[in-house]
Request: fold
Amino acid sequence: MSENALLIQQLWVGACLFGLGLVGFLSRRNLILMFLSVELMLQGVSLSFVSWGRFHGQLHGQVFALFVMAVAAAEAAVALALVLNLVRARYGLDVLRVQHLREEGVGEIPREAEEEEIPSPPPPSWPKLPRVGRAPVIPEEVLEYRPSV
Reply:
């Protein structure tokens, strides 16, 4: 196989990876899937850089691909931190739930269907401990039957 044919095949694979990532980014509302699509786009670009560098016999493409991988790793770390903070703040992974973070003057994106609010979890039921030196008072029905251990 000639060098030109190999270059064309590798560039097509890189373009397909980039296109799949772009379609995934534009068609999903889940934050994790959006970030994975961006990673797929970056890998398609990296493959194109490496194939052009191999075609020209230089290492610039491979060095730039390593740089892109380092940027992708940093982006993944920041994205993970953002996603964890949004989930902890009970916004979930849906992009439409964080529209209040938009700039002023930018209109909201209409939702297809209104979703119910995420119910807050019930407060934890902690056991009430007796004071130091006193035996705990246990009701009779608990001594006979325990629903959980």
Summary: Helices lie at 3-27, 31-56, 60-88, 140-144. Residues 20 and 41 are 8 Å apart (CA to CA).
